[in-house]
Amino acid sequence: MYTISRNVYLTYSFSRFIIATNLTTKMEPSNSQLEAWRTEQQALAERLITIDDHKTWDLDKGLRYIGGVDISFVKDNNVDACAMVSVLEYPSLKVVRTESAFVKLTAPYIPGFLAFREVDHICALLDKIQQNHPEVMPQVIMVDGNGILHPKRLGLASHLGIIRDIPTIGVAKKIIDVDGLLEPWKKKRLSLNDAVPLVGNSGQTWGMAVTSTSSAKPVFVSIGHRVSLHTAVELTKRTTKFRIPEPIRSADLTSRDIVRDTTTCS
């Protein structure tokens, strides 16, 4: 199980209690729930590490297992979904373990608060791997979503990395509206095998737009937790065969297959 400080834990538990109350009464998110989420994000953001902090591996040695996480929804349903973690051996990119579960994303979706819908389900899958297959526990996790490329610098990848104390990388398929980045990047294409900084109106670099050798459509890579932007971009490049890095692509395709097979049989 992940560990968090007592103050963060109390905030975390309180925000989950409010979710449960709202589900029972079928209410929209209350002001108190949103405030609890903001408080939790602020507390977590204070622990964010944006440099390489992984002493047992670097890009050229010691790295053996990379995780990819994704969640696929049942068609025409924004509650029922399949959460998936794929573990790939590095550098072969062979899938060595998958862990999945059908879940209900019962927390409401509010822009800027995606982690509160998904992170608990991902943590539960990581717990299963840690308990039952610790020999292939990921040393770094690539997340289908954003890291510090987020209005509060705390997207799903950063949120997950902090509460699990594990290096994470955000890899998003779409740009979000942060610091003036949306308009110039929402339809932009790059050269193949390229990487261009995502510099906002403020002058801050939020991440990198990265293309593979087979697609001019970029993904948007950002620091999650305990990795530098350089490492995040290089690892994305080294694990990408098509447009999406293989750890995330594996989690995406496998979860989609499970959803399709299950709904077809039901």
Number of helices in the DSSP assignment: 7
Poorly predicted tracts of residues: 1-27
Structural class designation: alpha+beta
Strand content: 15-25%
Distance between the termini: 34 Å
How much helicity do the residues have? Answer: 25-40%
Question: In words, what does this structure look like?
Answer:
This protein is α+β, with helices and mostly antiparallel strands and 266 residues long. It contains 7 helices and 8 strands. It has an 8-stranded mixed sheet, with helices on both faces. Helix 3 (115-132) packs across helix 4.
What characteristics describe this protein?
7 helices, 266 residues, 36% helix, disordered N terminus, alpha+beta, single chain, eight-stranded mixed β-sheet
SSE layout and pairing:
Blueprint: H1 6-25, H2 31-45, E1 65-73, E2 80-89, E3 95-104, H3 115-132, E4 140-144, H4 156-164, E5 168-172, H5 182-185, E6 195-199, E7 205-210, E8 219-225, H6 229-238, H7 246-265
Helix pairs in contact: 1-2, 3-4
Compact description:
By secondary structure, the chain is α+β, with helices and mostly antiparallel strands. The protein has helices at residues 6-25, 31-45, 115-132, 156-164, 182-185, 229-238, 246-265; strands spanning 65-73, 80-89, 95-104, 140-144, 168-172, 195-199, 205-210, 219-225.
